[in-house]
Amino acid sequence: MAAKLLRERLEETRQKRGAEAAEQFEKLVGERLGQLLESGKPSIDLGNMRAVVTYAEVPPEEEDSSALGRTLRGIKDKLAQRGGLQG
User: Of 11, 19, 66, 68, whose CB neighbour count within 10 A is largest?
Assistant: First the structure.
């Protein structure tokens, strides 16, 4: 259940903000889970995962209000959704 929750939030972030934001979110979640385990948690249960996934947030990108910026961001998001921005 915890893994499903993480997958859903990653997909939601990917669709709303793009692949880069989803990668940043995944990194933040991983770091937080690592901190919990290092601090003595024996494992990550659903409650811990829910708290981490719900409250971890990637800062919003700088808003580029130019038409060109919006167009490029739209193209980048479409490519990311189709798997075209694999690094």
Answer: 19
